[in-house]
Amino acid sequence: MFPEFILGLLWAYTALGCLLGLAFILIGLGQVDPAVRGPMPLFRLLMFPGAALLWPLVLRRWWRLRRT
């Protein structure tokens, strides 16, 4: 029972990270770093794994930027 719970948490973290990472590279990356505005498909592709893995930090940074 416990391993299924841990796997469920891991799947939820991964799914949420992929969704937020995709939203961040499409919408938020240009807001957080103005130098990235415009079409930069290779750079955005390279940023996706990091944004998906570190989504709590990305979300916090994005949220703080939007509040100010």
Commentary on this structure:
The protein has 68 residues and is mainly α. The protein has one domain (13-67). 84% of the residues lie in helices and 0% in strands. The protein has 3 helices and no strands. It has helices spanning 2-32, 41-53, 55-67. The model has no long low-confidence stretch (mean pLDDT 91).
- The dominant shape is elongated
Total separate domains: 1
End-to-end distance: 44 Å
Radius of gyration: 14 Å
Largest β-sheet summary: none
Q: Report strand %.
A: under 5%
Level of helix content?
over 70%
Number of strands: 0
| Average pLDDT number | 91
The secondary structure category is mainly alpha
Enumerate the spans where pLDDT stays under 50 for 5 or more consecutive residues: none
**Continuous helix count:** 3
* SSE order, one letter for each helix or strand: HHH
Brief digest:
With 68 residues, the chain is an all-alpha fold.
Question: How is the topology of this model organized?
Answer:
Blueprint: H1 2-32, H2 41-53, H3 55-67
Helix pairs in contact: 1-2, 1-3
List keywords for this structure.
68 residues; mainly alpha; elongated
